[in-house]
Design goal:
Length: about 400
């Protein structure tokens, strides 16, 4: 493939995940790269090149890619002209090697695309977009409502036993405070006031470079505090460690929504998950936040059916949710093993049917607070993205980045 012929070439970019903001930024960057190199982005597998941007956070995501590849083969598209990018090439390397013979480019090695397509604009010179959308049919929002995303770190501390994304993203690598501050200034200058500081574990920021998220946020608010900050999922350990700062940000109205990665309330289950915590400590901070800012929205992730969750331990979670008055909404998931995660080797696995029953029981207990009991009237863009990811093996990506 030569650069001279690129203007007559078309590329279809498909993804198996429209929910994760970090993954959306990733495939938006891939689209921007092909546009910069003169390719026409289409939504048809009859394109000259098909690029699958594959999230690999779970085995179900790998199955979606398998189904997508089957559809591509049915369209008689040559496998040599299909490229798989993203986290999946690392999280499911062996499975992928057994099922696919085309080019595979793991996350972090995208410069290989330069050689593949004869790029005149190398991938290293393409800036990841700060403003993006999952699909082109989602209308672009004005700067006053849209999120301006700043990636403040890559990787994580690799402690959650049920996760495989650390295989793709590696150890924690924080962006320098100066670079975050530069991007923050750029966003404000463009009129954006909703700033999304994102990472795999946002509040682990700085531990590798001798600083912390509270120190970073203090420097940003000193520049301009007329903003609304968002952080993605908040690991419960940081909720406790940085509780004082979180209470203050909520009191000032800088933070209006916190999503807590609670996962469970039983201490034994949390320890097995690699997320040791005391629910009393977590609730103490959340109560302080609600007292400081009653309007702040608190939501949580919960996993049912993790290895070793006895009837008694599940009942502990149910009783907590029956009495809870802190969380406004709860996203609850039935646990399913992921090959390659440390927990895959654990004893005490539960029957999937039992896990499904527990999920359904918790849904009933939560009532309107269950993310899955929301009415259509209460729908939002996040839920639409989740449903699209849940219902479809793939979605085409076009016009996903906003701006030049």
């Amino acid at each position: 493939m030569t650069a001279d012929s690129a203007s007559s070439r078309s590329v279809a970019i498909a993804t198996n995940n429209l929910e994760c903001e970090r993954h959306i930024q990733y495939f938006s960057t891939i689209e921007r790269y092909f546009v910069a190199n003169g390719w026409k982005v289409v939504t048809d597998f009859r394109a000259d090149l098909v690029v699958v941007c594959a999230c690999g956070f779970h085995d179900a995501m790998y199955k979606k890619v398998c189904h997508t590849l089957a559809g591509i083969r049915e369209s008689r598209h040559p496998e040599a002209s299909v490229v798989i990018l993203g986290c999946l090439p690392k999280t499911h390397a062996k499975d992928l090697a057994d099922s696919f013979r085309g080019p595979v480019i793991p996350y972090g090695q995208e410069e290989a695309l330069d050689r593949l397509i004869g790029a005149r604009v190398p991938f290293s010179e393409v800036q990841a977009p700060h403003v993006f959308r999952p699909q082109e049919e989602r209308p672009a929002e004005p700067a006053s409502k849209a999120f301006f995303h700043i990636r403040i770190a890559e990787g994580c501390l690799r402690q959650c036993t049920f996760c495989v994304i650390n295989k793709a993203k590696g150890a924690l690598r924080s962006t320098s405070p100066e670079e975050v501050q530069r991007q923050y200034r750029d966003g404000l200058a463009q009129g954006y006031r909703r700033i999304f500081l994102m990472a795999e574990d946002t509040f682990a920021y700085g531990l590798d470079i001798g600083t912390t998220v509270p120190e970073l946020v203090a420097s940003l608010l000193a520049m301009d505090s007329d903003v609304e900050l968002h952080f993605g999922s908040l690991h419960s350990r940081w909720l406790v460690a940085y509780g004082g700062s979180l209470v203050e940000w909520c009191r000032r109205g800088v933070v209006r929504h916190l999503h807590v990665g609670l996962q469970h309330v039983n201490e034994d289950i949390l320890s097995k998950m690699g997320r040791p915590a005391r629910i009393e400590d977590i609730c103490a901070v959340l109560r302080r936040i609600k007292e400081a800012s009653p309007a702040v929205v608190l939501s949580a992730d919960v996993i049912v059916g993790f290895h070793g969750e006895t009837d008694e331990k599940f009942a502990e979670l149910v009783e907590f949710m029956k009495k809870d008055t802190l969380f406004d909404s709860v996203s609850h998931f039935g646990f399913s093993d992921v090959k390659g995660a440390p927990s895959f080797e654990f004893d005490g696995k539960l029957n999937p049917l039992l896990v499904a029953r527990r999920w359904d029981l918790l849904k009933g207990v939560l009532g309107s607070r269950s993310y899955y009991n929301r009415t259509e009237e209460a729908d939002d863009e996040y839920r639409k993205a989740y449903q699209a990811t849940f219902n479809n093996d793939y979605s085409f990506c076009r016009h996903t980045f906003v701006g030049p």
